[in-house]
Amino acid sequence: MPKEGLPIFKKFRVNMRTYTMFIMLLFIWVLFGSLTHWIFFTPRNMSNLFRQMTIISFLAAGMVLVIVTGNIDLSAGSVCGFISAIAAYLQANILPQLLAGSFPAMTSEMNGILTTIITIVVSIAVGVLVGMFQGSIIAYLGVPAFIVTLGGQLIFRGGVLGITQGKTIVPIEDSFRLIAQGYLSVELGILIGLIVIALIFFNTFRSRAKKKQYGIEVKPLKSDLLRACIFSFLVAFYIFIMNLYKGLQTPVLILAVAAVIMSYVTNNTRFGRYAYAIGGNAEATRLSGINIKKNVFLIFVLIGAMAAIAGIVLTGYVAAGTIGAGQNYELDAIASCILGGCSPLGGSGTIIGAMVGSLIMASLSNGMSVMNMDIFWQYIVKGLVLIFAVYVDVASNKSSR
Questions:
Q1: Nearest to 282 by CA among 61, 131, 68
Q2: Are 78 and 304 in contact (CB under 8 A)?
Q3: Is the full-model pTM beyond 0.85?
Q4: Alpha helices for 165-291 (secondary structure H)
Q5: What number of other Cβ atoms are within 10 A of residue 273's Cβ?
Q6: Does the bond joining 171 to the residue before it have cis omega, within 30 degrees of 0?
Q7: What is the SS3 assignment for 251?
Q8: Which of 121, 185, 194, 330 could pair with 76 in a Cys bridge, judged by C-beta atoms 3.0 to 4.6 Å apart?
Q9: Distance CA 67, CA 347 (A)
Q10: Tens-digit pLDDT profile for residues 180-234
Q11: pLDDT per residue over 143-159, tens digit each?
Q12: What local confidence, expressed as pLDDT, does residue 4 receive?
C-alpha cells in the first residue's frame, strides 16, 4: 500500500465506530419502515419515538462520564424511579393541600404552577443528595462503584415501593405534565430551528478562527461548510416532520439544551477533560496532581442530577407515580452509551454519541412495538445489539493498534 494511503486508511479505522453507529441507525429505520408498511415513518410515530428516547437520554448523558472514568452506575434507573415516585407524591398528596392551606387566596392555577416549581426543585435536590451519598462512598471510602450502585439499585427500588405502597399515585398537575407531554407552536418551533441553524454556522466559523489563532491546522472551508449544512438540514427536516404532527416536543427541547451543556462540559472544561484522563490512565493522572477522588465524586453528583431530571420527565410522561418506574432504565442507558462509542474500559465516549445510541435503543423498542412483537423478543434483540456494539469496540481497538 502506498504511504500516502496510510493516513486515510488509519482515519477510517479510527472512525469505524462512528460509521457503524449511523449505518446501524439507518438500517434499523429502513428495516422497521419496510416491515410496518412505513407506519414507522409517520409524523405521529416519529414524534412519539423522539419523546420516548428522552428519559433514557438524560440518564445516558450522565452515564457517559461515569463510564469514561472506568466506573459504572447500576442504580441510575432506580434513582430515576425513586425521584419519579417522590415527585408524584408531592404533586398528589402534599403540596396542593399544603399551599392551599398556607395561601387560601391563591388561585388553583397558581397553586398548580407553584406546586410544579417546588416539585422540580425538591426532585433535583434529592438527585444531587443521592449522587453525593453514592459518590462519597465510591470516591472517598474506596468501595467499587459496581458494588455501591448495585446496593443503591436495591435501596432505591425499595424506596419506590415504600412511597407508592404498591399503588399508582395520581393526580399530577397539568403544568407538570406539560414538561413531558407539551408541544411548542409551529411558529416557535420554526424560530428555534432558525436560531439553531444560525448557531451551527456561527460556531463553525468561530471554531475555525480559534484554531487559526492558536496555530492549529484547520480543515478546508468546504469541508466545514458541508458539515454545517448537513447538520442544518437535519435540524430543519426534524422541525418540519414534527410540525406535521403537533410541533416540537417540550422534553426534546429540554434534552437538546441538556445535551449541549453536557457536551460543553465534557469538551471545554477541566472537569470534563480530567474525566477522560482518569479513564485513560488513572495513575498518570494522579501523578499529574489532579484530584481523582474529587472528580469521581462530582461525576456521581452529576449523574444523580441527571437521574432527577429523567425522573421528572418520566412522571410528566406517564402522569403518575408507578411501582415499576425506572426499572431496568440503567441498562438501556449503559447500552446507549456503549452503542454511542463509550468504551467499557473507559477513556473514550461522547455525549452526542450517547444521544445517537439512545435513539437506536428507542428505535428498536418503538419499531418492535409497532410490529406488536412479543416482549421477550424485544429483550433478546436489544441484548444481541449490545453484544454486537461491544464487539465492534473491541475490533476497532485491535485494528487501531
A1: 68
A2: no
A3: yes
A4: 174-181, 186-213, 221-243, 250-268, 270-280, 282-287
A5: 14
A6: yes
A7: helix
A8: 330
A9: 8
A10: 999 999 999 999 999 999 999 999 998 888 888 888 888 888 888 998 999 999 9
A11: 999 999 999 999 999 99
A12: 43
Instruction: Report the 10 Å Cβ neighbour count for 146.
Output: 13
C-alpha cell at 156: 432505591
For residue 16, give every residue at least 6 positions away whose Cβ sits within 8 Å of its Cβ, in sequence order, or none: 392, 395, 396, 399
Helices 174-181 and 108-140, interaxial angle, to 10°? 60
By the 10 Å C-beta count (0-12 exposed, 13-18 middle, 19+ buried), 137 is classed as buried
Give how far the C-alpha of residue 25 lies from the chain's centroid of Cα atoms, to the nearest Å: 17
Inter-CA distances, 265 with 35, 124, 164, 336, Å: 40, 19, 36, 19
pLDDT in tens, 349-374: 899 999 999 999 999 999 999 998 88
Question: At residue 355, what is the residue type?
Answer: M
CA contacts within 13 A on the Cβ side of 112: 11
- Rounded CA-CA distance 151/183 in Å is 38
